[in-house]
Each structure stands twice: as C-alpha cells, then as structure tokens.
From TrEMBL:
Coiled coil (residue ranges): none
Gene Ontology CC annotations of this record: ribosome
Top-level taxon: Bacteria
Region of interest (Disordered), residue spans: 1-111
Name under which the protein is recorded: Ribosomal protein S27E
Amino acid sequence: MSQPPEDAPWARPPDPDRAPQGDQPAQSGPSAASDDGRFAAPGGGSAAPGSLPEWPGAQGGAGQGRPPQQAAGQQPQMLGDESVDGAAQAAQKHSSERIIDTSSGKADGLSKCPRCGSTDIQYSLTQKALVCAYCRHAWNEENAEEAFGLDSSIADLRGATMASGTADVREDLTVMTLKCQGCGAEIVINVDQELQARCHWCRQTLSVNSQIPNGAVPDAVLPFQLTREEAVERIDAFAGKRKAFAQGRFKQEFVPDNVMGVYIPYLVVDGNMHAVLAGRGELTTRQYTVRTGSGDNARSETFYDADVFSVQRAFDLLVDDLTVESAQRFDIHDSTQATNNILGAVRPYDVENAVAYNSNYLKNFTSERRDLNIRDVDDEVEDKFLAIARAKALPTISQYDRGVRWTEEGVAVHGTRWVAVYVPVWLYSYADSAQGEGSLVHYIAVNARNGNTMGSVPVSHPKIFAAACAAGSVAAVIGAVVGFGWFLAG
C-alpha cells in the first residue's frame, strides 16, 4: 500500500468495497497449489499421463529428451517437483496407451472408382468431391471422426490415444516399389516427392494406400473448398490495399495467378485436463492526488491504495481440435527465411469435417510432408493448454480491477488424442529477385475452407519515411495556424 506524504493535503475516499467472495486476503501469502498430486508443470513433458507408446522401429523423435521450454515473457513459477511427481503417479493409475488404425486397408497400387473400377480419379473443386474421369461418378470418403471413432467423448480420454498416421517419422524411408495389379509390372516411386504414379505399361494410376512412416500419409485430409479463381481474387485484393507503400519491384512482378494449392500437415489434439492457477489479485480501495511544491515547481502525483488477495482457480478443462504445425519448414515461430507466421493467422480450420485419407485428393495440388513427431510439439501443446486455462479463468477474476498476476500454474493432463491431418491453403510466394538467394520470402495465404486471407508485402522504407515527414509537416502547419489564431484572439 502506498503512503502519502504526511504534510500533504489529500482527500479521503469512501470506505473500500468488501473483499470478493471466495478469495482470501494475502496476509498469509498466496495459497499453494493442491498437494493431491494431480498437477504437473507445463513444458516438463511429463504432464501427460504415462509415456507415449513406442512405434515399431522408432528410436525416439528429434525432440526426445529435450529440456522444457518456457514461453517468451512468461514469468510465473511452475508447480514444485513434489506436485509433478504426485501427478505422474496419480496419472499412471489411470493411464493407457491406444493406437487407432486409420489405414485404408487397401493394397498398395490401384485406388479404384467404386462404380466402374477406373483408377483415373481426381478431386473436383466444382463438385467438391472425387470424380471418376470415365463414368463421372462423384463421391467423398467417409468423415474421418465417424469412420475411426475419433468423435468419442473427450471427457473419457485417459492416457495417450494416437491415430496411426501420427507414427514417428523415419527419414530413411523414401522409396517404395508398387506392383501394378493390372499388368503385374513393378513401379518404383519416391514417396518423399509423390504418392501416385502411372504404370508405364498399362497406364493405370498406382497409389500409395498404406500409411508409410515417413510423414507423407496422414490420417485424414480436409479437401479444398475455395476455387483457384476465388483465391486469386482474394490475394489480388489483399495486395492491392497495400501497394501504396509496397516496393516498386513487387508491384511490377506481382502476378496473383501464380498461386498454388498446398496441403500443409497439422497435428490435431484433443485434451482432457485439470487446471490450477494461483496468484495475487489487487482491488483498488481508494485513489487520491497529492500536490507538492509551488510556482514552477508545482507538481501532482496520483496514488492508488489496493487490497491484495490470494486468488486460486481450479477447474476441469476439455480442449477440442487444437491444431499444431507439424512441418518445420512452415514453423510459424521461425520467420527468418519466410513469413511463416501468416500461416497461423488464417486459422481456424474445420478439421471436424476432414475425411479419411485418399491420395486422389492430393492430385493437382502439392503437399508438404510432416517431419515433426508428437514429442517434438508436446511442449508447445502444453503451453497452449495453459494459455487456454488462463483465458477460461478470466471471467471469474473480473472483480479485481488492478488485475491478477498468476504466480503458480499447471495442468494435469488426464488424456490426449492425436490425429494427423492435411489442411488446404492457397499460397502465393514472392522473393525479391534483385536480392537473389537468401532474400526473405513473403507469403500471402488463403484458407481454402473459409477464405481467411493474410500475408506480407515487401514495403519501401523511403516511401514510409516520406509519408511520415509529410504527415509531420501537415501537423506542424496546422499547429502553427491554430497557435497564430489564439495569439490574434488574445
């Protein structure tokens, strides 16, 4: 509590409001987190109950054994080791590991039209469905959540449940040999670059139907909804609004028709957890102004008195369809080579409408291979769980007009469910041709499901400086005119 000078005049405000119900004054300090052993420190990697199941042939992901990371600017103290150990023991009692098989069950090779048996199939943006080139039959694969039982209650999740498409990536698996079921020829395909190829003897289209553990085949795919023409229109409008300060070379070289359809891999996670937040909240009791000095040395200061309360919130939390990037190339936290951060700005995606994977959805589009495992993104996911818990608690602390500072926080994850999904993006990229290799790549991205558009445009700093100078000059002239008017009026 601030103390005013003894000899200074100040007005005494009315008595403060009573303390908020349910929270205790802070004389005894913030209440400690529950010691029932249910809480684990975020970012410690052990918050999830039990360890992740080992995939056949896996030797651990790139991020395995990585020390916990703390979010930038995040200062709260994590729960102690005793609470973490207790949480692990409590969680182990209820933990289970489960792998859901989401493979198609089809043999590698021919992916046939269900009506005529043709393999010449592609996705039609006009019909929003797979279309057979021979009989024109149109259909879509079954909704992935319904097909694989991924729509069960999140509140019932215990341990780690993972769809088979989230298997740890094996970098050594790049080539597969497919036996054509039409003529018996053997076709070698580089699965690092493509998942379909034509038999050079009978012209049948051969598809990789099995979930190879190189990150190229997800559990589900979210098909494109926006056409290429609609995406070009949005990108053109986005860049047009920013051309006033754009580099001259960008305006000359900007060709919105160069947009490409890209499937970007995401890991989608559901979480069942218990969150605990503890800290101190401040409630203003009075506000007063103190005047000191006289003449040119006169000054006034405003003081605030506040009651401090220990605040604790504990609640169950269910998180549905949290999406996390799973390709290092498009890491939204790394914008040193390209403006990847704009890819996160076009979310959300309606991943609940994703369908079971069929490689024909990828025809005429490009796709990025997943190269991050669950262990690599586990810390980021737990940080997001904590952020959601803080947001969930906000409506319950609105009475503290000076805010609440959380000093202890944690989530005990009872269960998670992981699914690998391809999401569709129309992507325009631009790199300054004059700077050559190493120049920053600017992206303009369009969410191909809901049309959200975001991007970056290279700006001309001289133009911005000139505009700032012009604005300053105009403000100075206006100020001079107003001042001269006051002078004449006086």
